[in-house]
């Protein structure tokens, strides 16, 4: 199970996630929470045969967020290439001990995370690489 936390803001790369989910080779459970979310994208994901979507829309309390992280094998952070914005989600994953699937959108962040056993990086904007990482999480959770 993978979680996708936080609102879908322009710097987040939902397009890459969307494309990667259509390439899944194994069934995947995805928990999505936050605000704003795009209901059309969520419906498209609900219709994918290999994806089981669990949506918790809206801002959530810290206790609900902890439950989402606890239920997940990994959390997914995907940003558009070149976005160098601090990610509270990366910090939450580190603080709560949740393995992290993260795009290499920010060279400084990528350098800090390099070699960490709980981090699964993928090239920003590359849905095939993200699908491969998701496949590895399904087959062998980190």
Automatic annotation (TrEMBL):
Please provide an example of a Pfam family that matches this protein in its UniProt record.
Glyco_trans_1_4
The record's GO molecular-function terms, alphabetically, read: glycosyltransferase activity
UniProt-listed Enzyme Commission number(s): 2.4.-.-
- Assigned keywords, A-Z: Glycosyltransferase, Transferase
In Swiss-Prot or TrEMBL terms, this protein is called Glycosyltransferase
Species? Streptomyces iakyrus
